[in-house]
Specification:
The structure holds two protein chains of two kinds. Chain A contains four helices and no strands. By secondary structure, chain A is mainly α. Chain A has one domain. In chain B, helix 4 runs antiparallel to helix 5, helix 7 packs across helix 9 and helix 8 crosses helix 9. The interface between A and B is large, with 56 and 54 residues.
Chain lengths: ~80, ~200
């Protein structure tokens, strides 16, 4: 039985832009995503949209954590 | 007010490997791609799909051919993202492997999609910064650490760096966002309500 508090923590974990990778470097879904029901997953999606808007507003280049994660991966791959 | 932009102005530089140009395009493309994936949110981890789609956009950019309409790069990224989401559903056998109708529907959606994208709104940005500065220290600390991790570290590591238990860290981040949203609402701003 998932408590509302545990559900909220799972949602917050899915909101994070961090995603693990498999040995080939492929992005994997958040483990918490699989522990959420469909309503929880949609809630996480909506929260993530708001979180990314906040992150972009606070970033000097207007980039969210998602954009930063992608750029970091590109720069690492190019040795930059 | 936000001004309409055309991210294709960066296409040539991106194709030449200019990551700075790609960053400028990402600031506009990423919210658009995420918004377009709402119908998949209950089945697919949209964050993973968005990141993978943007990485593939960078890799495929040298082959991008503008179609004469503005924001072709954004439509290209959205198409990649939808294909990734559909592939993921098929891989998990939640969609038939030969569902041509779905592919056609996705293609029609992409073709009809609005190509109007907005530049970040400086007034909204100023209001978010103002509300962020009003947060209680513990909540601000957790939100700041999450942002500074830039999607490169799991929450367990970020929480440990702050000397917080994971659940305390998560609660602080959630609380920070709720307080910030409430502050914005008091100023007549609702985040994340724009249409996909």
């Amino acid at each position: 039985m998932t408590t509302p508090e545990h559900q909220a923590e799972l949602v917050e974990q899915v909101v994070s832009a961090y995603r693990p990778r498999d040995p080939r470097g492929q992005l994997l879904p958040s483990a918490a995503f699989h522990d959420l029901d469909e309503a929880g997953r949609v809630a996480a999606y909506e929260e993530a949209r708001r979180a990314r808007a906040i992150e972009a507003a606070l970033d000097p280049e207007g980039l969210s954590s998602t954009a930063r994660a992608v750029l970091n991966r590109i720069l690492r791959a190019s040795g930059g | 007010m936000s001004d309409a932009v055309d991210v294709d102005q960066h296409a040539a530089a991106i194709a030449a490997g200019d990551s700075g140009a790609f960053a400028r395009a990402l600031a506009v493309i990423e919210p658009s791609v995420r918004a377009s994936l709402r119908s998949y949110a209950s089945k697919v981890d949209v964050e993973a799909v968005v990141q993978e789609a943007l990485l593939r956009l960078w890799q495929a950019a040298p082959r991008f051919v503008p179609d004469g309409r503005p924001n072709g790069l954004a439509r290209f990224a959205t198409r990649i993202a939808h294909n990734l989401a559909i592939d993921e559903l098929r891989r998990r056998r939640e969609l038939p492997s030969e569902d041509a109708a779905l592919d056609e529907a996705s293609t029609r959606t992409m073709a009809a999609e609005s190509t109007v994208l907005a530049a970040p709104d400086p007034m909204l940005r100023a209001r978010i910064v103002y509300c962020y500065e009003q947060l209680p220290p513990k909540n601000a600390l957790a939100m700041h650490a999450r942002i500074e991790a830039r999607g490169g570290e799991p929450d367990t590591a970020v929480a440990e760096q702050l000397g917080m238990r994971l659940n305390t860290f998560l609660q602080n981040v959630t609380r920070a966002r709720k307080l910030l949203e409430r502050c914005l609402e008091e100023q007549g701003v609702a985040l994340g309500t724009e249409a996909p």
